[in-house]
Amino acid sequence: MIKVIIVEDDPMVAELNKRYIELVEGFEVQAVLHSADAALQMLDTCAVDLVLLDIFMPGMNGIDLLMKIREKGKSIDVIVVTAACDNATIMRALRFGAIDYIIKPFEFDRLKDALANYKELIQVMREDAVIEQKDLDHYILYKDHAVNVQLPKGIDRNTLKRVWDKIQSSQQKIFSTEEIAVQVGISRVSMRKYLEFMKEIDVLKLELIYGTIGRPVYKYRCATMGTQLITRYF
Predict the structure, then answer these.
(1) Could you say which architecture CATH assigns to the domain 2-139?
(2) How far apart are CA 223 and CA 133, in angstroms?
(3) What pTM did the predictor assign?
(4) Which of 85, 120, 176, 220 is the most exposed place for a label (fewest CB within 10 A)?
């Protein structure tokens, strides 16, 4: 049985995550804790395999807790479950050894897939002395089963991919809503919803462009980490 603790300051979210975990065979929730400090104390005294960790918490945040777990050299795996979707936080979590990163709000299937994949990886590691590359690709890199996160109402997954593919293939480094709408073949009103969504998740940046003649206009530009951030939505 894989022993899990949930570290989440919102009691309702923590209870929901607990119920989710209890639906997946092979996992046992040892405790639900509402602060990183409480989790750190428990980890010093109890054997835990996996932590479901929020980032935004009063006092010590989730990244700080993850850092302290690594500083102590504890053999504990961490899956981050958080609303934090900025590239700096994601990169810090991954660099400090988070094995997965799930962005709220998420569908149960996303967490279920993460837990099932983790359970299979643990079984393989315990049973096989030598691991083949294809197994690493399957369990660590998720190459053979894509996992998608929930999209806001009014955003279609296929259309989002069409828009993103057109942005990537376009010769224009900076573009207006109307320009990309014409290229994709949807209305300017519809396109604005997709571009605003991509701006909200830090895939695009909105800039005010001053021309030589006329009023300045707002145009979009791809963020540095745009591709890494948006692929989880396809």
Answers:
(1) 3-Layer(aba) Sandwich (3.40)
(2) 32
(3) 0.60
(4) 120
